[in-house]
């Protein structure tokens, strides 16, 4: 069993981005600029946004954190989105989810200009990705594909079961893995909460990507020997013995499943760090496209 070390890979990618930024500065070109919109004071959101801002600093990006009260109206937030769309100093921005209940997430995400949608959530980017056209790929699927690429894992012709059909992870990764290309050409089954006989599917799978959000869902008896495991799950589980009061668990029972797997991502330290690295990569790509 070999660990697919997303933390190590993310550091490599950040170093590559840092060098690219240094070269841009040397040539007198624009420095990439990423903004993050945070509505309210959700603890997990604060942590995620904070790590993204720190990552910008690490690679030499400009970053702007826009904090708004959770009482902000939907119309006021839409006006802020319009302002960011028209801000030529920004190469991209993200709106941290979840938003307060009185605000329609979909309406806000649709308002983000596709050329600044470095999260890759806009339907225009999703559609272009599906058609294998230039787009922003959602950061988590982008990170998973980069893990396959950098570990030189041949997925061509392999049977992959994706558990979870979200627009952020499940659906896009199922499309990317089945596409033609250097990394792709897998035969993909997209499973979800209504799938019958899920264990029969996972027991035959060469690759399993789990993005279900249920801690320790995937057990050792559900997989075959030599399987490649990508665990996207990140769930806070209460643990009174831990200094933080909780521990982070993935979808995969790591101790049980790792005994049978050839490659496996840990949680934490697997897909999570890659998501942030690829968000930075998308921002750099946006800056380069704007320059061209």
Notes on the structure:
The protein is of the alpha/beta class and 292 residues long. The protein has 2 domains: 28-112, 3-Layer(aba) Sandwich (Rossmann fold), CATH 3.40.50; 139-272, Rossmann fold, CATH 3.40.50. The protein has helices spanning 6-26, 43-59, 74-85, 105-111, 123-130, 139-150, 170-178, 198-204, 254-257, 271-291; strands at residues 2-3, 33-39, 62-68, 92-95, 159-163, 187-191, 207-210, 227-231, 235-238, 246-249, 261-264. α1 (6-26) runs parallel beside α10 (271-291), α6 (139-150) runs parallel beside α7 (170-178) and α6 packs across α10 (271-291). It starts with a strand and ends with a helix.
Task: Describe how the helices and strands are arranged.
Blueprint: E1 2-3, H1 6-26, E2 33-39, H2 43-59, E3 62-68, H3 74-85, E4 92-95, H4 105-111, H5 123-130, H6 139-150, E5 159-163, H7 170-178, E6 187-191, H8 198-204, E7 207-210, E8 227-231, E9 235-238, E10 246-249, H9 254-257, E11 261-264, H10 271-291
Parallel strand pairs: 1-11, 2-3, 2-4, 5-6, 5-7, 7-8, 8-11
Antiparallel strand pairs: 9-10
Under CATH, the topology of the largest domain can be stated as Rossmann fold
Share of helical residues:
40-55%
Specify the CATH class of the largest domain: Alpha Beta
- Report the principal-axis shape: globular
Based on DSSP secondary structure assignment, what is the total number of beta strands? 11
Pick out the low-confidence regions: none
Number of domains: 2
CATH architecture of the largest domain: 3-Layer(aba) Sandwich
- Please report the distance between the alpha carbons of the first and last residues: 44 Å
Which structural class matches the secondary elements? Answer: alpha/beta
Percentage of residues in DSSP E strands: 15-25%
Strand order of the largest sheet: 1-11-8-7-5-6
Taking all Cα atoms into account, the compactness measure Rg is: 19 Å
In N-to-C order, the SSE pattern is EHEHEHEHHHEHEHEEEEHEH
CATH superfamily of the largest domain: NAD(P)-binding Rossmann-like Domain
Mean pLDDT: 95
Q: Describe the main β-sheet briefly.
A: 6 strands, parallel
* Structure annotation, total helices: 10
